[in-house]
Amino acid sequence: MTNPVQFIGQVRAEISKIAWPTRREVITTTIMVLIMAALCALFFSLVDLGLRTGLHALLGATSS
Q: Topology relative to the membrane, per the entry (predicted)?
């Protein structure tokens, strides 16, 4: 078992190995995520609208 001082040293050594993204990479990936989220929201909204319209037409046709 390591003592707290050794543990902190090991943590610092591991953190120094991390390849941190650049500011440009963060902005680019953030924009891509926002665009994909908007496209998914639009797709599922259109699917929901189509299903709702189809069910409304089907149920309206059977109740009349």
A: Single-pass membrane protein
**Is 7 a domain residue?**
no
Tens of pLDDT along 20-39?
999 999 999 999 999 999 99
Residues 6+ apart with CB under 8 A from 22: none
33-42 CB contacts, 8 Å cutoff, 24+ apart:
none
Whole domain around residue 53: which residue ranges? 21-63
Residue with tokens 């990936």: 29
Question: Model-level pTM?
Answer: 0.66
Number of domains in the chain: 1
State how far the Cα of 26 lies from the Cα of 34, in Å rounded to an integer.
12
Which region holds residue 3: left if phi is over 0, alpha if psi is between -120 and 50, else beta? beta
